[in-house]
Amino acid sequence: MNLQEKLQRLEQQALAEIKQTDNLEKINKIRVHLLGKKGPITEILRGMRDLPKEQRPQVGSFANAVRDELTAAIAKQKEQVELILNSKKLEREAIDVTLPGVPVKAGTPHIIMQVIDQIEKLFLGMGYQVVDGPEVEEDHYNFEMMNLPKDHPARDMQDTFYITDQILMRTQTSPVQARTMEKHDFSQGPLKMISPGKVYRRDTDDATHSHQFHQVEGLVIDKHVTMADLKGTLEKIAQTVFGAKRQIRLRPSYFPFTEPSVEVDVSCFKCGGKGCQVCKQTGWIEVLGAGMVHPNVLKMAGVDPQIFGGFAFGLGPDRFAMLKYGVDDIRDFYLNDVRVLEQFSQKE
Ligand code: PHE
């Protein structure tokens, strides 16, 4: 076999091998072996020394052509293998956009906010305005304007966080009554407002007491407001929060800023009034305080009690939520344990 034939055979074998190789590493090995210094082509070319001079150029250029061809074949195969590997990789990494996603954990309004929202909706629907007041309040509004002068014994009903002699954390939302009445222009019509918000008392926290809790104040001032209006309004609240079949009953009570004052009970939503653990066998649950606005309160806010009068109420959304959902420790609302709070998640 002469050199040319050897080269031809090598060429054929090598081309076949290259075409079969589907692995980049192996392709590289073939390249190094075939075209390298110790490779078969170099080896064959070394044999040219034994050829007659006039044959050398012809064999030389044939050898170069074979080398070029193999080089090109290797490059082409490499390119093809890369292409296949690439498309396999794309296939592997493909995203199925039709797969259901991982649900995002969304928050939910706090249970107390849900109760407040429910009450706000009810009263907005009846034409009330929703008013905000400061939590850091003046003694003047929190007590004096609510008919609780200094040294009035009823101040002891609400243990107070004082900041200075005159400034305190409000113990009730009632000061918003005075603030709103002072500003209201009665020539424009009656005053109908609710005011939800946080209140503070110097209590030791336990299952039924929290040093910070919520109230919703309500106030209506007009020319001919009666206790029947109050009762109808309270019934509406009870039925909205505790169910359409609820009844209410009023018991005489005392607040310095209302006269007469009442404590309001709602018929037990658990047993319907027969008596159970929730209502302590009485059939009734105490839910809020209310009354007809005291003439002194009107006077101090610049409203003439000879012409105007009205009712006020104060309710506790914390207590509402506890009753409604059977939560027996108020602290559960404030520890912010997600496992507790997410049980009240609101699905719209
Ligand atoms: N402010 C009273 C309280 O905190 C509740 C109340 C408000 C009672 C309005 C009557 C009228 O106890």
From TrEMBL:
InterPro entries: aa-tRNA-synth_II (IPR006195), aa-tRNA-synth_II/BPL/LPL (IPR045864), Phe-tRNA-synth_IIc_asu (IPR004529), Phe-tRNA_ligase_II_N (IPR004188), Phe_tRNA_ligase_alpha1_bac (IPR022911), Phenylalanyl-tRNA_Synthase (IPR002319), tRNA-bd_arm (IPR010978). Belongs to the class-II aminoacyl-tRNA synthetase family. Phe-tRNA synthetase alpha subunit type 1 subfamily. GO terms for molecular function: ATP binding; catalytic activity, acting on a protein; magnesium ion binding; phenylalanine-tRNA ligase activity; transferase activity; tRNA binding. GO terms for biological process: phenylalanyl-tRNA aminoacylation. HAMAP family: Phe_tRNA_synth_alpha1. Residues 119-343 form the Aminoacyl-transfer RNA synthetases class-II family profile domain. Pfam families: Phe_tRNA-synt_N (PF02912), tRNA-synt_2d (PF01409). GO terms for cellular component: cytoplasm. It comes from the Bacteria. It comes from Liquorilactobacillus vini DSM 20605. PROSITE patterns: AA_TRNA_LIGASE_II (PS50862). The lineage of its organism: Bacteria, Bacillati, Bacillota, Bacilli, Lactobacillales. Mg(2+) binds at residue 259. Its main location: cytoplasm. The gene is pheS. Gene3D superfamilies: Bira Bifunctional Protein, Domain 2. Its cofactor is Mg(2+). This is Phenylalanine--tRNA ligase alpha subunit. It is an enzyme of class 6 (ligase). Tetramer of two alpha and two beta subunits. Binds 2 magnesium ions per tetramer. It catalyses: tRNA(Phe) + L-phenylalanine + ATP = L-phenylalanyl-tRNA(Phe) + AMP + diphosphate + H(+). Keywords: Aminoacyl-tRNA synthetase, ATP-binding, Cytoplasm, Ligase, Magnesium, Metal-binding, Nucleotide-binding, Protein biosynthesis.
